[in-house]
Write a structure and sequence with these properties.
Number of strands: 0
Strand content: under 5%
Distance between the termini: 69 Å
Order of helices and strands: HHHHHHHHHHHHHHHHHHHH
Helix content: over 70%
Largest sheet: none
Length: 449
Amino acid sequence: MKLSVIDFSLLIGYALVCILIGFWSSRKNKDEDYLIAGRNMSLVGFVASVVASYVGGAAIVLYSAYVYKFGISAIAVFLGTAAGFLFFIPYALKLRKISSQQKFLTLSDWFYFKYDKQTGIISAIILFVVYFGMLLNQFIAGSSILAHISGLKYETALLISASIITIYLLAGGFKSVIKTDIFQYIILFVLFVLLGVILLKGDHHFTTELADFSRMDPAMTVVFIIFGVLIIFQSAEYWQRVYAAKSSLVVKRGFTWSAVFVIITGLAISIVGLSAHMHVPGIDPNSAFAEGLTVLIPHKFIGASLVLLFAAIMSSADTIIFVLASSVSKDYIANFTKKEINQHNLKNYTRLFILIFAVAGFVMAFFFRDIVTVIVFITGIGFTIIPAAIASFHFNLDKKAVLFSFLSGIVWIIILFLTNNLQAELSIASVAVATIVLVISQLILKSRV
């Protein structure tokens, strides 16, 4: 497919706006603004940032594939996530109160605070593996779709995406992440709604497909819901939003409205996936979103859909890069160097690692383009920390029990990988393994005291 001058203009205009937002965010930007948006994030910024970071290129690819295979029942992923946002609110409120006093920047700061350096560093290593895998998936999935629908080469799409994100992140840091997320989610939301209207009007039989649950897989539906609810507790970006919020009221209302908008967004993506199933049968499910858009969207709307894809790639990829950079700066360097690290030092380290991870993600995505195994692997690894994360708010856990819980989940995933049994249902069972080991270890260690 050849892009028109208008299509190119839309893409260039969108990219320039993101870069300008980044430089605008850097004006009078204090160190804490760069690191955590000055802990003054508004309700609009909170909701837009939470939902935009959730709906990325990889999420669109996988979710559209699930809709293609299992029908509208795959909306359970978004319903589970919405429930997870609401379930997380009381934990988030407590977390914000403590983080305001302790000046947390990362999820692992919580484990450093509750336990010790060893527990904190293990959690940081787990999250590093998870988020680098997520970054790789984001670049691969987003650039693949962009290349498919635009006619650009995959390498060109990848280079454009990585370059733009790097420029505005280096300029404005976390503050630019939030401001660009607001812009990106407005783009995503408006275009998803427009695409949904176009598709619904184009086929009067489509409402039947929306109400068809005949392809529903009960086991996968349960997996989708569990995944959606629990993913919040291992998602460092949501913890960072809690730290950055202006007030507890912003946190409470922010997650409530995020639950609403994530369902609306899920329905919009479902429409594309279901349309692909109706009109383009027999394709690889992982190509459902790209094929659906290519076949179903009138050529005059291609430019708009490309902007949507760009927004999806950047809204999650910039968050992931910043999570990785801030984690290495705070969780590793600040906690293990003998020198005193102030916020200005952290800012400089974070900026350096933004560049490093952007380049590393680009290089890895250039040579490695299979995302399914990576996603299943990192999901299982990430779910390992969930039992200890939730329990730490309710119980006085022994640090060794937490450590054993982390390691058991990791061992479980490694065994699945080595035995060629790394499937989604078995992968998220790492949360059950980690829970059992946590309970048993805690009981044994407590009885010895």
